[in-house]
Amino acid sequence: MIKVFIVDDHPMVIEGIKALLHDEENYPVLGSATDAQSALQAFRQALPDVVLLDINLPDMNGIELCERIKKEFPILKVLGISTFKERSYITRLMEKGASGYVLKNVDKEELTEAIRQVAAGRIYFSMEAAAAITGQSSSPVVPILTSREKEVLALIAEGLTNKEIADHLFISPLTVDSHRKNLLAKFAVKNTASLIKLAIEHGVIVL
Known about the structure:
The protein is built from 10 helices and 6 strands; from the N terminus they run E-H-E-H-E-H-E-H-E-H-E-H-H-H-H-H. By secondary structure, it is of the alpha/beta class. Strands 2-1-3-4-5-6 form a 6-stranded parallel sheet, with helices on both faces. Helix 3 (62-72) links the parallel strand 3 and strand 4 (77-82). Helix 4 (87-95) packs across helix 6. The chain is elongated, with a radius of gyration of 18 Å.
């Protein structure tokens, strides 16, 4: 029996995965969480065998959470499950300690096989994930942003000051400044103009 835990910011996705595994008595779903902190708290109470981990989460991205999981719970196996099939996302997640990666269009047979392989200490990639890794061309690295960072970025693009953004989002100007610095670091740029230009090119914001 392999105990599974699901981390995804969309409750409907969680319910969909639970439905896939409902009739599989060898893969009981121990629990689920829609954000990173709730997941970490749950792991401190009861440890599953395999975590199905999405990339896009509201408080920290799945790559960062994977690193936290492997540091705090090294025996826990992480299987990435996402709509992202770019090589950069997959390799970054694997570098942080994940044992495999599948896309959300996976069927029940492949999902249970992936869970079984990962739980056994092996590496598993769905066909599309494997193709992305072995492909000759790779997509540009698009930074993974939290929901709050996306909100701040959109308001920066509208030309709002830190204070105006703070008032709009009901947070402090210092917090806005911290988000702004994180955004510059994630996009590897030195000024706001370059940040907005790159965000538009990557389709992160639309003006």
